[in-house]
Design a protein that fits this description.
The chain is α+β, with helices and mostly antiparallel strands.
């Protein structure tokens, strides 16, 4: 899973750098698929419960599960969430990042992205054997609240391994004394999804794309993290030292 995580982080970084004004969300998916084929891995999301895309690309008020589309051309100032999953040698990996397509990033969007990243790191720091899962959830929620943003509660993280979505669910909110005790060897996909406005979402007519009810922006960062004897280990990283 560590090797899959490394491969995935390389793929996502390359796809992220292709996200530019004038490029379609389908172009990103096709590029991701090409990289996956080169690495001899399969797209985890394609066909998952009928999802039609190789990756998810969600723009601006789209929160998650955006379907790649040739007609959806990225524009300057778009806030783009790229979520990629792969399967290789019987194991899954899952990772998401948010990228802003513009020169100087507006303060509001900078705060939203930093808030989401910081919340993810707060959650990861609590992926320690002996902790309740709720410690991760509450630390994410607290971090988001402290930055004045809101957690979108409709979507949660998850265990991951031989299946894409395994138990336990990893909510980005809730009391810290709840949920199972974390054990060495568990691998969790931790993925706060955060907005700067109303956290309510609805699903578009395509049956997949979640959008915020009032058009407010959202950000999404996800890492796959192992609970180890030495503490939390981010598997979706190009840096595997230590
Ligand atoms: Mg995930």
């Amino acid at each position: 899973m560590q090797e899959n995580g490394r491969i995935l982080s390389v793929i996502l970084t390359k796809v992220k750098h292709q996200a530019k004004p004038g490029v379609s969300t389908m172009d990103l998916a096709e590029y991701a698929l090409e990289l996956m084929t080169r690495e001899k891995c399969k797209p985890a999301f394609l066909g998952y419960k009928g999802f039609p895309g190789a990756i998810c690309v969600s723009v601006n008020d789209e929160v998650v599960h955006g379907i790649p589309n040739k007609k959806r051309i990225l524009q300057v100032n778009d806030l783009v969430k790229i979520d990629v999953g792969i399967r290789k040698d019987g194991f899954f990996a899952d990772m998401a990042e948010t990228v802003y397509l513009g020169g100087e990033i507006p303060d509001e969007i900078d705060t939203l992205m930093k808030s989401t990243k910081n919340a993810l790191m707060a959650g990861i720091r609590n992926a320690i054997a002996g902790n309740t899962l709720g410690k991760i959830s509450r630390s994410i929620e607290k971090s988001v609240e402290n930055s004045g943003m809101s957690v979108i509660r409709r979507f949660v993280g998850h265990g991951i391994g031989r299946s894409l979505h395994e138990k336990p669910p990893v909510p980005n909110f809730g009391p810290e004394n709840q949920g199972p005790r974390l054990e060495v060897g568990m691998v969790l996909a931790i993925e706060p999804i955060v907005t700067n406005g109303d956290p309510e979402v609805f699903i578009k007519n395509d049956g997949w794309t979640a959008v915020t009810r009032h058009g407010n922006l959202s950000a999404h960062f996800e890492h796959m993290v192992a609970v180890t004897e030495c503490g939390p280990k981010i598997l979706t990283s190009t840096c595997q030292a230590g």
